[in-house]
Amino acid sequence: MKLTYYGHSCFSVVAGGKHILFDPFISGNELAKNIQVDQIQADYIFVSHGHFDHMLDAVSIANRTGATIVGSWELYTYFGQQGVKNVHPLNPGGKVSFDFGTVKAFGAQHSSSFQDGNYAGVASGFALKTSDGNFYYSGDTGLTLDMTLVAKWAKLDFAVLPIGDVLTMGIEDAIQAAQFVETTTVVGVHYDTWGFIKLDAANAKEQFTSANIKLHLPGIGESIEI
Q: Metallo-beta-lactamase domain spans which residues (predicted)?
């Protein structure tokens, strides 16, 4: 599978013949200033929760590409009200089949609200089964034993996990999360965007390697095969 990183927690995966985009926050991210939002391809956009740094560019990308936005009931309602034509609800515990494969939502331990402070539904992560392989994006979350349920549903090729600490898991908990979901390949996200989530990349890789887990930290705009 081809994964492209767009900074913060935004990335896309080409799987099942579709471009699947997650948590689009690009135009507001100074570190992603060289990324052209209007050139990003998307057939589906998954939004893990309502914080601006995970959905800022969702409407503009969906309206340009015709992509289907998928998220909790509250996000489904919100994006529909914003005029997005293709939206689909998916709450934790639910699963749905699309033309690229099947997705199951899992709860994430994190707050979720819109910019005006209104409730944005339960924060989520997503596990995807596709013809090209399976992967899990935890969304913003703390470590939780519920992650063991992911491995019961899908045998993963890799997981995308936040590692920046403070607002989400840090390195140690992300290693434990990888063990819970039973993968030895991790793509780290949600780090460096602000000073309080700065990452010591060399230390992170060393700790993951010591746990026999491969940590990928692609540069912003970089694509990797995984």
A: 7-190
Q: What is the pLDDT of residues 194-209, one digit of tens each?
A: 999 999 999 999 999 9
3-state SS, residue 34: coil
The amino acid at 39: Q
pLDDT in tens, 160-183: 999 999 999 999 999 999 999 999
Could you give the number of structural domains in the chain? 1
**CATH number of domain containing 142:** 3.60.15.10
Which residues lie closer than 8 Å to 55 by C-beta, 6 or more apart? 23, 24, 25, 47, 75
Please, are residues 190 and 54 in contact by the beta-carbon 8 Å criterion?
Answer: no
Half-sphere exposure in the Cβ direction for 207 (13 Å, CA): 16
Nearest-5° angle of CA 209, CA 210, CA 214? Answer: 20
Place of tokens 């100074």: 30
CA angle 198, 112, 165 (to 5 degrees): 20
CA of residue 79 relative to chain centroid, distance: 18
The residue range of the domain holding 166 is: 2-225
What are the strands, taking DSSP E only, across the chain?
Answer: 2-5, 11-15, 18-22, 44-46, 68-71, 87-89, 95-98, 101-107, 124-130, 133-137, 158-162, 185-189, 214-216, 223-225
